[in-house]
Design brief:
Elements lengths: L13 E7 L3 H14 L5 E7 L6 H9 L5 E5 L6 H10 L5 E4 L11 H9 L4 E5 L12 H18 L11 E4 H7 L10 H8 L6 E5 L14 H15 L6 H26 L4 H22 L12 H30 L2 H24 L5
Parallel strand pairs: 1-2, 1-4, 2-3, 5-7
Antiparallel strand pairs: 4-6, 5-6
Helix pairs in contact: 1-2, 5-8, 8-9, 9-10, 10-11, 11-12
């Protein structure tokens, strides 16, 4: 690492935000690369760690003890890449903020070129894999196809002015962050897409191509949850925030729960159980499935663990019970008024789903001080 604690002295001109979770093996390497890439510049790096069990925060603090340009924010009881990025950007001292992953797949050597575009008048600069000179060949076939499809959907539906709105490597003026922060979701992984879909028209968006690298340490945090988060973000932005990302995830889990319910019902009936007994058993199994799936996915930033799982599960049973009554009551009323079974069924299902979501958010996975 550069031996000078601060290049040139004075306040930083660039803050680099690095969200981390279980990246202990990468932080020292990345800090050294940032020092080399930004030599001659005044910069700081804020590592925002989601309480990694591998000791990532301790590794960052060890670096910070010898280099005041390195800072650490350790988040307790809060999870999620988007939230970590927002928290880090709002803590920045510099007038310009960059976000880069800790997995060493982003090419830090393009940071000076990105900063030059900001100095030239751009408000946001995206490091793109898909414009001329960019490269994403390190993706496997499945992830590459998913990335391209998501990029196309985002550009078509949200009209974002970038060839790579799914990029996790970007730079922007801190004033843009300050103005748009209240509109951003702390859930999910695609913080750049959220920013591009939330900023007012008229801002200048520039791009700098780079080659996406291969992870050398740690494990990727990308999995099927990313697609649910992405679809939720698209719907949220396309509807002006009327549909939240969390509700989309909750509804998706409910759809899977219906499949589980029908499968359990079929097995119970096949085993000779009376319909009432089979239906009751299937309902309990489906609710239990929904609880644990929502705990892992929809409310992972408020995840219940240990002994708190028991009262949480029991409360969820009660919430869903009232939701079933609301479903039946509303559906019956609509059927009497319209005599259309499918309208009644849809109305009851929507009311039940909204009730379950709002009650679960308020009572089961409520935010704790």
């Amino acid at each position: 690492m550069d031996e000078r604690p601060v290049d040139g002295g004075g306040a930083p001109e660039l803050t680099v935000v690095v969200p981390t979770f279980n990246e202990r093996g990468n932080v020292a390497v990345l800090a050294g690369r940032l020092a080399a890439a930004l030599a001659g510049r005044r910069w700081e790096a804020i590592f925002v760690d989601d309480d990694s069990p591998d000791g990532t925060a301790e590794a960052v603090r060890a670096l910070a003890s010898g280099d005041p340009r390195i800072r650490c924010i350790r988040r307790i009881g809060r999870r999620g890449l988007a939230g970590a990025c927002i928290e880090g950007m709002l803590a920045a001292q510099a007038p310009v903020v960059a976000v880069i992953d800790a997995d060493l797949q982003h090419d830090e050597t393009v940071l000076p070129a990105m900063l030059a575009r900001i100095d030239g008048g751009a408000d946001i600069v995206v490091a793109t894999r898909y414009a001329g000179g960019g490269d994403a060949s390190s993706f496997d076939a499945a992830r590459g196809a998913m990335s391209r499809a998501a990029t196309m959907a985002a550009r078509l539906l949200l009209k974002v002015p970038s060839s790579d709105p799914m990029s996790g490597f970007f730079m922007l003026r801190r004033s843009v962050v300050e103005s748009v922060a209240p509109k951003l979701s702390t859930q999910g992984f695609k913080i750049l897409l959220d920013i591009l879909a939330s900023v007012p028209p008229g801002l200048t968006v520039a791009e700098v191509p780079y080659s996406f690298g291969v992870r050398t340490s740690g494990a990727s945090k990308l999995d099927n949850r990313v697609m649910v988060d992405f679809l939720g973000l698209l719907l949220s932005k396309a509807t002006g925030g009327a549909i939240s990302m969390r509700f989309v995830s909750f509804a998706a889990v409910g759809g899977l729960g219906l499949v589980v319910h029908l499968a359990a019902l079929r097995l119970a009936l096949g085993a000779g159980s009376p319909f009432t007994t089979a239906q009751t058993l299937a309902t309990v199994i489906a609710m239990t499935f929904n609880f644990f799936m929502n705990n892992a996915l929809t409310y992972r930033d408020r995840r219940l663990s240990g002994w708190r799982l028991i009262p949480g599960l029991l409360t969820f049973y009660v919430v869903c019970g009232f939701g079933a009554f609301a479903n039946i009551g509303v559906g019956s009323w609509v059927f009497i008024e319209t005599d259309r079974w499918w309208v009644a069924g849809l109305a009851g299902s929507v009311v039940g789903a909204v009730w379950n979501y709002l009650s679960s958010t308020t009572l089961v996975w409520r935010t704790r001080p």
